[in-house]
Design a protein that fits this description.
This protein folds into 3 domains: 2-59, Arc Repressor Mutant, subunit A, CATH 1.10.10; 66-270, Bira Bifunctional Protein, Domain 2 (BirA Bifunctional Protein, domain 2, 2-Layer Sandwich), CATH 3.30.930.10; 278-319, SH3 type barrels, CATH 2.30.30.100. The longest helix is centred in the C-terminal third of the chain and has 22 residues, at 237-258. 37% of the residues are buried. The protein has a 7-stranded mixed sheet with strand order 3-4-5-9-8-7-6, with helices on both faces. A 5-stranded antiparallel sheet has the order 13-12-11-10-14. The protein is an alpha+beta fold. A hairpin with a 5-residue loop joins β11 (286-295) and β12 (301-304). α2 packs across α3 (30-42) and α6 (147-164) packs across α10. It is built from 10 helices and 14 strands. The structure holds biotin. Biotin binds at residues 90-92, 113, 116-119, 122, 124, 133-135, 176, 186-188, 204-206.
Length: 320
């Protein structure tokens, strides 16, 4: 009902529409329209009301239009089913709860996460209407040890989508996208399976699209930012999601078909924030200064210490 009221208000933006007309159109009482209007106001809609004139929509929060998104999306599998929520604990948790019965490519998107989760058990700040908080359910026929490759595919898809929207960015191996050395996107890959048999993978993508300074705590601000903060303009989240899902599908299907990560690795190398640079490899409490020299064909990072000893890193913490 709320959505229907919003639709009518938007169709009549900048002019008053009476509660009577809305209630007739939606076949509910005027009192209940008034109650929904109060709820909408709490959610950030600025709606003026005047006696004998009715309601006028002044401004509204940037709510995702999933119908438009679904209509524009031109993928074969990824995002063919979309579950859209106003708020959830975590889209990854939601995805894992339904993954066994769900189709390959189902996507969970929420406007807000109350318990957004990052890697290594960290929290992930996910304020309402400001980011892209989504998870993709995948059921590829690949060995479980190949799951990290899907993380790289997602990172490459996000990075290229940012490029398309004119957002300068780098990939910080294995799963962060950074702008001016600060993180704007993180990817959390989770899976369920047994030895040798993968049941499903959930790729959680979190993008700080339109967060303001006040949305980030002081400690997070040191290493994270948002596209809006860095570029000074608001990102159209629908277009961003569409672009990411389409690019992800392209790279993912190529990987399944060719059994090679070549296309993804071309992007990850070209867009790397690390290759050729001195970085710190963090192992427990210790930090080692190494040079990041290459990505191998499996997407692992090859580093070299000052004595020329090379090491291949599967996953781990790298700090710039
Ligand atoms: C990281 O620590 O870098 C990974 C962050 C991943 C955040 C995303 S937001 C959508 C999905 N749901 C979650 O709870 N986490 C991931």
């Amino acid at each position: 009902m709320k959505e229907k009221i919003v639709k009518i208000l938007k169709q009549n933006k900048n002019k008053y529409i009476s509660g009577e007309i809305i209630s007739d159109e939606l076949n509910v009482t005027r009192t209940s329209i008034w109650k929904y209007i109060s709820v909408l106001r709490k959610e950030g809609y600025v709606i003026d009301s005047a006696s004998r004139k009715g309601y006028k929509l002044i401004s509204y929060p940037d709510v995702l239009d999933i119908e438009v998104l679904e209509r524009k999306l031109s993928t074969n599998h990824i995002g063919k089913t979309i579950y859209y929520y106003d708020t959830v604990d975590s889209t990854n948790i939601k995805a894992k709860n339904i993954a066994l019965d769900e189709n390959n490519g189902a996507v969970i998107i929420s406007e807000e996460q109350t318990k957004g989760r990052g890697r290594l058990g960290r929290d992930w700040i996910s304020p309402k209407y400001k980011g892209v908080w989504m998870s993709i359910i995948l059921k590829p026929n690949i060995p479980p040890e190949d799951a990290p490759k899907i993380t790289q595919i997602a990172a490459a898809a996000v990075s290229k989508s940012f490029d398309d929207l004119g957002i300068k960015n780098k990939i910080k191996w294995p799963n962060d996208i950074v702008i001016n050395k600060k993180k704007v996107c993180g990817i959390l890959t989770e899976m369920s399976g047994e030895i040798g048999r993968l049941k499903y993978i959930v790729i959680g993508i979190g993008i700080n699209a339109n967060l303001d300074e006040k949305d980030l705590t002081d400690d997070i601000k040191e290493m994270a930012t948002s596209i809006k903060i860095e570029n000074g303009s608001i990102v159209n989240r629908e277009n961003l999601i569409i672009d990411i899902l389409e690019k992800f599908e392209y790279l993912y299907e190529d990987f399944l078909k060719t059994k090679s990560l070549n296309k993804t690795l071309d992007i990850c190398s070209e867009k790397s924030a690390l290759l050729g640079k001195m970085v710190y490899l963090v192992k427990g409490e210790e930090r080692f200064k190494v040079r990041a020299i290459d990505l191998d064909s499996e997407g692992r990072l090859i580093v070299e210490d000052k004595l020329g000893n090379k090491e291949t890193i599967i996953s781990g913490e790298i700090s710039i």
